[in-house]
Amino acid sequence: MRADVDVLDLLATRRFAQIRDLFAPSLRSMVSADAIEVTWVAALETNGPVTEIGTPVREQAGSGTAVVKIPVRFERGAATVVMTVLDDGGWLTGLQLAPASAAEPVRPWEPPDYADPARFVEQEVTVGHGPLAVPGTVSRPRSGSGTAVVLLAGSGPNDRDETIGRNKPFKDLAWGLASRGMTVLRYDKVTYAHPEKLGPHFTMADEYVPYAVAAVDLLGPDHDLVFVLGHSQGGTAAPRVAAAAPSIAGLVIMAGGTLPLHWAAVNQLRYLAALNPATAAASQHTIDVITRQARTVDSPDLSPSTPERELPFGAPAPYWLDLRTYDPVAVASAVRKPMLILQGGRDYQVTVAADLTGWRAGLGDRTDVTIRVYEPDNHLFFTGSGPSSPAEYEPAQHVDPTVVADIAEWLSRARLQQS
Q1: Which end of the chain is more exposed for a tag (fewer CB within 10 A), N or C?
Q2: Whether residue 232 lies in the annotated active site
């Protein structure tokens, strides 16, 4: 199979279900043919018909994975079809319609000003055991405080750096905190490292808990205190990890959602549709589909046998049944450990109104919980202005230095309080 050839042909002939079938079998159920259709049709309605397809550019993105970029020119604009492809078998693990600038070769990541590579060393480690163990990196300061941090990435098949385009938010955090004397462990998610090996009953608990606990255990013998820092869905999962690993010293939750995931998806689609009125009509179909599927998740009739096509993202029923039993705020309330909860004011994926409100309501009166909002920051804690959008993630940038400094300061203070 040649995904870099097939996808463009299938888009041109509107065979969207067949594009879904190009995804790795373990991820296929989470891919919506409707969402692919709406995105492509909206691009055609905005830019006119395709007039030229450029030469695919393939870049190795890690062990066993490549990124294929195909420039596409329309009558009134241009874009780039970006695919993440497994070297073994050529299966897709990601697909997006990105700005035209995404076709440019990715420049090597450059450290932020707040990182000093001379102050730490890095070593490769393995997190977990058996065939689903994943590779990771420990950033270890040459001299430090004995404080360690495990990073939990957001939803989807994220690598250890949470790479998105030319940006690496978790590498920013790891290098920034290691430069301040803290050991940081980040690792590839199992959905990134082994997407072809995951079974049909895979849940969010399976995705996060065993690996985070293994990472904490890996760091524990050499460090007095081990904290867990989760971003996005990793932040949502962080209380669940703390409940499973009582040795954890505390939590840092960055843009952790409290709104149920299926309704957060509906809100995101509505937000993105409102950004571009020209494509609102095309987007409404997807909004209607996801809304209907979200109601199915909430239905008392949801069971392990509910068809995947009736559920958001095509994720199987066991995934949603597991999520329905998990209330991150309630679990966090029962975890008597210090917490730092951070939120970007311009974040449209996890919002102040819909998500931070939940953390405040459940934890706001606790003296060991600190909540901060960074008004100029988006979901990745990149600083900007105006309404946030997916295109904002494309230019090279780094995590807000104030955020990194505040996390380091809070960790140091939490250490003093527990020593």
Answers
A1: C
A2: yes
Task: Output the CA–CA distances (angstroms, integers) from residue 155 to 124, 152, 306, 324, 364, in the order listed.
Answer: 23, 10, 23, 17, 26
C-alpha 153, offset from chain centre: 6
213-to-72, 126, 174 alpha-carbon distances in Å: 44, 13, 19
* Beta sheet of 147-152, edge-to-edge order: 120-127, 134-141, 183-187, 147-152, 225-231, 250-254, 339-344, 369-374
Q: What token pair was written down for 147?
A: 């404080």
Residue 247 has pLDDT above 70, yes or no: yes
User: Residues 194, 223, 231, 379: which is the catalytic one?
Assistant: 379
Judging by DSSP bridges, how do beta strands 65-74 and 77-86 pair with one another?
antiparallel
pLDDT at 63: 61
- Between CA 106 and CA 11 the distance in angstroms is 25
In contact, 404 and 177? CB cutoff 8 Å: yes
DSSP one-letter string for 133-148:
-EEEEEEEESS--SEE
Question: What would you report as the CA-atom Rg of the chain, rounded to the nearest whole angstrom?
Answer: 21
Q: Decide: pTM greater than 0.90.
A: no
Strand 339-344 to 250-254 pairing? parallel
Residues 6+ apart with CB under 8 A from 145: 181, 182, 412, 415
pLDDT(300) > 60: yes
- How is residue 30 annotated by DSSP? T
Tens digits of per-residue pLDDT, 141-162? Answer: 998 778 999 999 999 889 999 9
Write phi, then psi, for 322 (nearest 5 degrees).
-65, -45
Beta-carbon-side half-sphere exposure of residue 207 (alpha carbons within 13 Å): 26
- The single residue of 179, 232, 283, 388 carrying the catalytic annotation is 232
